[in-house]
Each structure stands twice: as structure tokens, then as C-alpha cells.
Specification:
Length: 149
């Protein structure tokens, strides 16, 4: 009896660890979706003239991207390596195989976002700066994100 309780306890523990890993991975995915909303739905939309220039909205979008840059170093712990999520993308094993390379992409993204915060003052400076942020996203995705098939 005690033995089977221990076994059940151990199984439950295993289940809750998997759930926690799923949560961590889901949060990363949610953060990434938020990035896309702020870059595409706010900054690039203004560049294209789909939305009027709005400094407060620009600042809010840049703040979220900046928060992402700060979160990225801890967003993909070893424990989420094998977590498979629903969606079109997953993390590449290269995140853990090439930690220095991944850290370099994060640094580069962080630098471009923090420069953007001081540079973007009007539509012209937004037009000059926003594509560079998008390039940083693709630069990381190219190597460290996988398209699910
Ligand atoms: C340092 C690396 C890195 C940077 C920088 C980065 N991403 Fe990602 N992104 C990833 C990884 C890894 C995944 C796949 C795992 C995941 O979704 O959490 C991903 C997934 C995504 C996804 C797919 C989410 C889904 O639905 O599954 C979107 C959209 C996205 N990123 C947008 C962006 C945008 C926009 C930026 C720039 C503003 C950005 N990312 C910057 C690494 C990065």
C-alpha cells in the first residue's frame, strides 16, 4: 500500500514537472506572439501608413520588445528542450547546443531595441529604424527556430 502510494506520488510529481515545462514553453510562445503584434501590428503598420504615428504606442511597443530582450536569456531553460507545443514553430535544439551563438543573437537584438528607444521620435526615424528590428528577429529565427511540418 505504502509502496503504491509512493509510486503514485512519483508519477504525479513527474506529471507536474511536465506541466510546468509546458507552461514555460507556452509563455515563451506567448511572448513571441506579443513581439509579432508589436512589431507588425504597431511599428510596421505605422511605417506602412496603416495606422497614424503615435509616440505613446511606439514607446509601449518598444518597451515590450525591450522586456523580451531581458527575458530571452532565461526563456529557454534546458527543461523545455523536448517540449512540443501546438503551433507552427518550435525551438531548435541549437539553442542548447550553441549557447554562445544564441546569447550573441539575444545581445544583438537587445542592442538594436535599446538604440531604437532613443532613435525613434517621428515617422521618419521610425521608418529608418523599424526594419532593423525585424532583421534581428529573423536573424535569430533563421538558426534557432524550427518550422513545424
Ligand atoms: C534570440 C532569438 C530570438 C529573437 C531575437 C526573436 N525570436 Fe521569435 N522565436 C524564437 C524561437 C526560439 C522561437 C520558437 C519557440 C517559441 O515559439 O517559443 C520563436 C518563435 C516566434 C514566433 C512563433 C510563435 C508561435 O506561434 O509559435 C513568432 C511570431 C516570433 N518568434 C516573433 C518574433 C519577433 C516579431 C521578434 C522580434 C521583434 C522575435 N520573434 C525575436 C527566437 C527569437
Amino acid at each position: 500500500m505504502i509502496r503504491s502510494l509512493v509510486v503514485v506520488g512519483a508519477l504525479l510529481l513527474g506529471v507536474s514537472t511536465v506541466v510546468a515545462q509546458q507552461d514555460v514553453a507556452k509563455q515563451s510562445q506567448a511572448t513571441m506572439k506579443e513581439n509579432a503584434k508589436n512589431l507588425g501590428g504597431v511599428l510596421i503598420a505605422m511605417v506602412k501608413g496603416e495606422k497614424p504615428y503615435d509616440q505613446a504606442a511606439v514607446n509601449a511597443a518598444l518597451k515590450q520588445l525591450d522586456d523580451t530582450a531581458k527575458k530571452l536569456p532565461s526563456m529557454f531553460p534546458e527543461s523545455v528542450k523536448n517540449v512540443k507545443l501546438e503551433g507552427d514553430y518550435s525551438s531548435s535544439p541549437k539553442i542548447w547546443e550553441d549557447k554562445a551563438g544564441f546569447a550573441a543573437k539575444i545581445d544583438s537584438f537587445a542592442k538594436v531595441v535599446s538604440e531604437a528607444k532613443t532613435k525613434i521620435k517621428d515617422l521618419d526615424s521610425l521608418k529608418a529604424t523599424a526594419p532593423g528590428i525585424g532583421k534581428e528577429c529573423s536573424n535569430c529565427h533563421e538558426t534557432f527556430r524550427l518550422k513545424s511540418s
